[in-house]
Amino acid sequence: MMEELFMLAALCVLLSVAGALYRAWRGPGRADRMMSAQLIGSGGGGVAVLIAAARREPAILDVALVLALLAAFAAIAFVKTITRDGAGDPEADTEDGR
Amino acid sequence: MSVVELITAALLAIGVFFYFAGTVGILRFPDVHSRLHALTKADNLGLMAIVIAAGLHFGDGWIAGKLALIWLLALFAAGMAAQLVARAALSPEHNA
Q1: pLDDT means per 10 residues in chain B (96 residues)?
Q2: Which residue range(s) make up the domain with B73?
Q3: What is the ipTM of this complex?
Q4: Under an 8 A CB cutoff, do B15 and A84 touch?
């Protein structure tokens, strides 16, 4: 009974991630599309944890770990492309981004 | 349905609710920064509830520890990413 409950929760989280794809399509700015990519990372991690619990398979937890990590690196890569010469130092207050 | 299973089911419901709150927040909020706010906060709360439910379901201490580490990593990653993306979205050349 519990396994079906976990699978149902995984389905709901997947639907919520799918809902966020609309933002990726419509998102006016590049930051909006980046956000939906980050949501896929954290939502996907949640789905992986749920499936791991449903199937009692600890190996799937590593999938969630990797997804969380990749979402972080994706956000960093996005920020690095924003500054003009790619130096990507968001702390820089100078005009040329260094 | 033992007490533990009831608690797990309730935590799952809370987790799914927060994920939907995050998605609605992303779709409905007017500008970038409020969407970032919704995304980062709601998802991590949802992930916390799911992690606790999965930990209860697994019943093993080591796996619960690993789940807690996954949640901590997601927490720090989301916090850091939200700060960076928000600062990047501030700059004028982003909106070009």
Answers
A1: 89 93 87 84 90 90 91 90 81 54
A2: 3-91
A3: 0.86
A4: no
